[in-house]
Amino acid sequence: MINKINKLLLLLCSILIIDALQVVAQQSVQVKKVEGLENNIFLYRDTTQNIDARGSMNAPMFIIYPDKPINEEEANVLINELGLDDLIFKYAGSVGVINPVGKTYDNEKDLEAYKSFIDRMRAIFNLKIIGIGNGATFVNDVISRNANEVAGIFVYGGKLTKRTPSDIPVPAYISGADKNVAAYYVKVNDAEKTEENNNHIIYANDDEPLQRVVLSLNKKATLKAAIADAWKSLFSKNYRFSNYKHTAYMGGKFGEYGSYELEPYLMLDESGVTRKTVIKNLNEQRLPGSKAYFWYEFIPEKTLNAPNRSIPLVVLLHGNNNDNRTQSETSGFIEVAARENFIVAEIEWQGAGRFPSEGFLGLDGIELVVDEVINNYPQIDPSRVYVQGLSAGAMTSAALGIRKSHLFTAVAGHSGAIFDRPVFGFSYQGLLNEAKQKAGCVETPYFLITGTDDNVIPFPTKENYTDNSFFNAIQIYRQMNDMPEIEIDFDSEPVLGMKLYGRETLSTNKHLTLETGKLYKGNIPLIQFTAILHYGHWNYAPAAQMMWDFFKQFSRDPETKKLIYHKQ
Fold first, then answer.
1. Can you give the pLDDT at residue 568?
2. How many domains does the chain contain in total?
3. pLDDT at residue 23 in the model
4. Is 232 exposed, middle or buried (0-12, 13-18, 19+ CB in 10 A)?
5. d(CA 558, CA 370)
6. Residue 9 falls within a domain, yes or no?
7. CB atoms closer than 10 angstroms to residue 197
8. Which residue, 69, 245, 428, 553, has most beta carbons within 10 Å?
9. Burial environment of residue 207 by CB neighbours within 10 A (0 to 12, 13 to 18, 19 or more)
10. Considering just the CA atoms, what is the radius of gyration of the chain in Å?
11. pLDDT beneath 50: ranges in the chain
């Protein structure tokens, strides 16, 4: 009888939560004045945390420069007229109106007001600027030339009075504007015509396709129709990100770190990958009254019809106090999964409180979830199960490779390793003891990548490498994998600090340099260590492909649990 009551209460709780989320999703945008700034700025942020919507990482922020000054009520009417409500709630976004300082736009005063706004917001990664009429003219003349943090510009009407081109490429959508406006943005982005249809002409840069300009051909388009086309053809393509010489989420002042890089924004409905929200109590039979676990599953279309036991599984673990959409939306693994055809699961392992779940799962709880995913998808090959994490998730993935070596074939960590003190239910000494016991019997490949300017979990240097968390993790894996002693030598290897093999220096079109090398056991590359020069504490999305290329070299015999190396 008690179990039946518990089940009814759990069902009722679930219904109430679903109803609450539906009500939240139907609410309207209501902006509020931002206090302490010279001009009237009205802003709304979606803080509903709807678990079926997108996460807040890289969420779009739409900032509108109106034709003339408007009040709070008029701002809400304008936002509704633009049709931004649905985008705000679907993508966990923000929207605001920035009025001119005076009755009309003044380039100098309103530029200073814009800079003050950027300083107040600090960490902005997906800023979309919308200019209407006189506001569009101000955006063309001023904002486009100060677009360090701007991910995209939309102008409706307006003119261009300054003909000198900007040196900051910025994606732009032009509707009903002076013909010189489109030519200006095409030149700024060094773009060429790539596509034309009945709605618009698209221009793009050959080397950086995100440097994109869309010219609307619909001269009668309403604001709402133009914004809808702008979202589909331009705004949804990218965000803007800078983790160079600082950690992105710690923010910065206007222009402090130069022009941010254009990065692709993940659109799941265009990726060929379906996300499934899973909330399930895995302990109900043995622990009546326990709470549910919460995770997301990402299923590429091609995997559903795949033969049984033919598809790998990659488990993603978010960082400290992030939610379990962080890695799927910023690590690059979903894009790789779509290309390479594997299933992804991202687990709420820490208990961040977005759903009344079990809370901190620990390594055993993570294993329970992974077993459940494997059991639910016969397509998954249990000999190819991998785990990757960011920061605290990287620490946990490193621990899983030692403690749960029977489950995970290979592991990877970004911006995190193993501290010399207990964290998240495990300790350096405990993991080292287990590694010593398993040495000669168990092998787990380990890929580690981090930025040299990480000020959260310091990169190893000649001055701090003793008890450095990254060297700790490498030493533990060397121990368990029964590999030769590591040669520490900062004189001949000033960046990575140890003798590695297969050394490469990789340069990217994002002006970043990576240094990478491997440690071998015989002819098997069991450890790979990669440094991103002058990079802060966060994901570097192209590393997802590097990690996957490392993972797919290995499988684990499902019966003996022995590691198998597949030379590429």
1. 77
2. 2
3. 37
4. middle
5. 15
6. no
7. 9
8. 428
9. exposed
10. 25
11. 1-26
Question: What is the distance between the alpha carbons of residues 134 and 115, in angstroms, rounded to a whole number?
Answer: 19
CA proximity to 431, closest of 441, 440, 419, 443: 419
Q: Which candidate, 504, 516, 562, 564, places its Cα nearest to that of 540? A: 516
Q: Is 257 helix (H, G, I), strand (E, B) or coil?
A: coil
Strand extents, DSSP E, 35-93 = 41-45, 61-65
* Nearby residues of 236 by Cβ (< 8 Å), 6 or more positions away: 265, 267
How far is the C-alpha of 241 from the C-alpha of 264, rounded, in Å?
A: 10
Please identify, among 264, 285, 312, the residue that sits at the C-terminal boundary of a domain.
264
In this predicted structure, what is the pLDDT of residue 4? 40
Q: Do the beta carbons of residue 325 and residue 57 sit within 8 Å? A: yes
Q: Assign residue 375 the CATH number of its domain.
A: 3.40.50.1820
Q: Does any domain span residue 203? A: yes
Percent of the chain whose predicted confidence (pLDDT) is above 90:
81
Q: Among 217, 233, 264, identify where a domain stops.
A: 264
Q: What is the pLDDT of residue 65?
A: 98
Same domain, 124 and 152: yes
Give 345-401 as a DSSP string: EEE--S--SSSSB----HHHHHHHHHHHHHHH-TTEEEEEEEEEEETHHHHHHHHHH
Q: Which of 133, 96, 84, 92 is nearest to 231 (CA)?
A: 84
pLDDT of residue 179: 84
The pLDDT, as a whole number, for residue 352 is: 66
* 194/198 Cα distance (integer angstroms): 14
Adjacent-strand bridge partners of 290: none
Do residues 253 and 119 lie in contact, with contact meaning Cβ atoms separated by under 8 Å? yes
Residues 218 and 145 in one domain: yes
Instruction: Return the pLDDT at 5.
Output: 35
What's the gap between Cα 212 and its chain centre? 22
**Starting from the edge strand earliest in sequence, which strands make up the sheet with 501-507, in order?**
273-280, 293-300, 343-347, 311-317, 380-390, 410-414, 446-451, 524-532, 513-521, 501-507
Model pLDDT, residue 27: 65
